[in-house]
Amino acid sequence: MSREIKxxxxxxxxxxxxxxxxxxxxxxxxxxxxxxxxxxxxxARVKDLLPRMTLEExxxxxxxxxxxxxxxxxxxxxxxxxERFPWDTPKNTRLGIPPLRCTDGPRGVGSxxxxxxPVAMLRASTWNPELEEKVGEVMGYETRAIGANVxxxxxxxxxxxxxxxxxxxxxxxDPYLLGVMGSAFIKGVQKYAMACAKHFAGNxxxxxxxxxxxxxxxxxxxxxxxxxxxxAVDAGVASVMSAYNDLNGYLCAxxxxxxxxxxxxxxxxxxxxxxxxxxxxEDTLSAINAGLDLEMPAGVHYGKxxxxxxxxxxxxxxxxxxxxxxILREKFRFGLFEPPLEFDPGKIASKEHTELARKVAxxxxxxxxxxxxxxxxxxKGLKTLAVIGKLAKYPNIGDRGSSLVNPPYVIxxxxxxxxxxxxxxxxxxxxxxxxxxxxxIAKKADAVLVVVGYIWKDEGEGHDRKILTLHKKDxxxxxxxxxxxxxxxxxxxxxxxxxxxxxxDLVPAILMAWYPGxxxxxxxxxxxxxxxxxxxxxxxxxxxxxxxxxxxDNKSKEVVYDYWHGYRLMDKKGYEPAFxxxxxxxxxxxxxxxxxxxxxxxxxxxxxxIRVKVTNIGEREGAEVVQLxxxxxxxxxxRAVKELKGFKKVFLAPGETKTVSFELKPEQLAYFDVExxxxxxxxxxxxxxxxxxxxxxxxKASFKIVGK
Length: 708
Ligand code: BGC
Known about the structure:
Elements: H1 3-31, H2 42-49, H3 55-60, H4 68-74, H5 77-83, E1 87-88, E2 101-103, H6 120-125, H7 129-145, E3 150-151, H8 175-189, E4 194-200, E5 213-215, H9 218-225, H10 227-234, E6 239-242, E7 246-247, E8 250-251, H11 256-266, E9 272-274, H12 284-290, H13 304-311, H14 317-333, H15 351-364, E10 366-370, E11 384-388, H16 413-421, E12 426-430, H17 435-444, E13 447-453, H18 472-484, E14 488-493, H19 501-504, E15 509-512, H20 520-528, E16 558-560, H21 566-573, E17 590-597, E18 601-603, E19 608-616, E20 622-633, E21 643-652, E22 657-664, E23 671-673, E24 678-680, E25 685-691, E26 699-706
Parallel strand pairs: 2-3, 3-4, 4-6, 5-7, 5-16, 6-9, 11-12, 11-13, 13-14, 14-15, 18-26
Antiparallel strand pairs: 1-2, 7-8, 10-15, 17-19, 19-22, 20-21, 20-25, 23-24, 25-26
Helix pairs in contact: 2-14, 4-5, 7-8, 7-15, 8-10, 11-12, 15-20, 16-20, 17-18
């Protein structure tokens, strides 16, 4: 048979086969229940599936499951948490409903050996939401690649006080910065997996987290502790996790005002509310009435108890249907009913992902001090470098609670320095335990790097940090080394602000490295030796003394949070911080000029445009974060002296100028009127401040909001 005839025959067979199969498939397709048809709108799929489910099947959607084999293997719930395999809800085989599979958390995927990014506090210091979106995207991908579909992040609780043990997991002290960075992360994650904004709300003490009642007035709640959660909802977050603590007398998982009135009814949140993990729910009826949709990690109150409550008429089936619809909606939205997309496990902690971890660290390490331009160091001018402090060779990637990540490797500062300087500079290491030894080594070197700070034992989930300063022995070490060698550079590691007054003036250079992730050592090397120009800015003010902070009470059963903390408190009281919110140095210098407002008066339905020029007036390329703060003149209520309302990170070559624009809508300037129970935009004068930190604001202007 000739080739042509053979081809023809094959073609004919295919043609007939298709003719028979097409009607067969269309018949099948028309039989496909609506909920299984991906071309149908999500709401139609939810509406179709719900009535097909029995009460038991519905309730199964609403709680986690710890399979006996897993529980037996782990032994206890605590061990199970450490085992850290995704936390599942039951699978429904009859109807083909896939389970939720949840994994932590804020600095990388907690199961397996995934990319360990710098902690969120470092990422907040980048003030770069585009970069944070990329971080989210990688974590979302790795979540799916390990077989999970919900990432229990971001943590967007506001840091009221730097001693809070979980500060490192979040994005700082300011609601706007928290909201922008958290939303960017959510957008990134949700390209692949569901994100979970946690912990809703007012969670910022560890030692008493399971029982403390956090009290605050409605205005403080709305203006300080909730705006970032609202921004996460507006960014489309799939789930919100209720906090462990009580808020104004109700456990957060039982808190109708928070979950139903504000989150669901007022903000229009369409996703589901999940409980936190340990002892977060205490009672079936209170939780379901308040609006908790999913109890994790097991159905203690939402299993048989909930079914009984429905059967006894104590809970309406509409409430159950609403909760189940929310969960199903997100399962459809994230394509869980369709055959899973290919997620290549080979990409987990791949070069592409770890390079991003390094880049983020490079943008988020903050240069606090650089007297006489001692940094960057030039390897050519160095013969001997002393590296001192046990953290220099400790893989210090942060807490070991639920945010623990087990990366395949960690580059410590010492490892990076030794590898990169090998052959050219002699590197001497000393742990610093013996002060005279450290001193001797410092004397022999041309420059010294001291790496000090905290580790997971000092601060983390379940335990607050006990001190605001460094450990006494670290302070002593810095003082002795600085005396022995004037070219002493201090690298700080930790999760939030540190008081460094007792030694700050003794050293010429200080870097805040937070917990810089698996590539942290490389990033630090690149900054110290000038391969990268630092551009990190503090997402929390560093105080000079404890009395510049609000009270931190992690003993009492009840605490009161007032309106004031961080830079808002320091501005109100006129305190001079050690390093202000938004502060960070660069190896180059910038100048802001030509501040222009589109109008001097705007109506409440108008938008104000603000433009400013920023120029790199130094010798090398670098990035500046242009920060916009707003003040209020003649307000009816006491307001912050100024508040962050916008920021842009701008990358500039030497001599280059760029124009930065902001848009302000009047609703961004509203305050919450407790009597009227709504947001109010006042017809007053607003002060505009532009600059490079909350205390370096060289450009000022003002505008008015007027009635029609
Ligand atoms: C933490 C959550 C975490 C959960 C699951 C809880 O103890 O508070 O943030 O997502 O455990 O690991």
